[in-house]
Design goal:
Shape: globular
Number of domains: 1
Structural class: alpha+beta
Helix content: 25-40%
Largest sheet: 4 strands, antiparallel
Radius of gyration: 13 Å
Strand content: 25-35%
Number of strands: 7
Length: 124
């Protein structure tokens, strides 16, 4: 699940199980055990879109949110650019999948939302 907003204070969470999403299972499995930076210390409720089936343009995201077409999601917000950098260090092939198939979300200010069961805060 992907959203866009500004960076805030930094906290971390570890992906403990395969996160939900549209990426292939093997790609989502690559997140397991990886410590990820969090934008907010607590999970949030937000709206988002699938990384493969979501709109390609920001203006369309906004329109679809207003029309009630976005998915409600609860989870931990992770900056995509940093998450992909960390993923690349662990599993370069998985990071390349994201760069190839969901490049529009790997920009400064874009975020993944890791579902609640998949993430656990670290160091609290």
């Amino acid at each position: 699940m992907a959203t866009r907003s500004s960076h805030g204070p930094r906290f971390t969470a570890a992906a403990g199980i395969r996160p939900d999403g549209e990426a292939p299972e093997a790609i989502r499995d690559a997140w397991i055990g990886l410590e990820l930076p969090l934008v907010y210390p607590e999970p949030i409720n937000t709206l988002g879109f699938g990384v493969l089936t979501g709109p390609k343009y920001r203006w369309l995201e906004i329109l679809l949110c207003h029309l009630g077409r976005a998915q409600k999601v609860s989870g931990y917000v992770v900056p995509t650019d940093e998450a992909i950098q960390r993923l690349a260090a662990k599993d370069p092939a998985a990071a390349m999948w994201w760069k190839t198939n969901a490049a529009r979300y790997i920009t400064l200010g874009a975020h993944f939302v890791f579902d609640l069961p998949a993430c656990e805060p670290v160091g609290r």
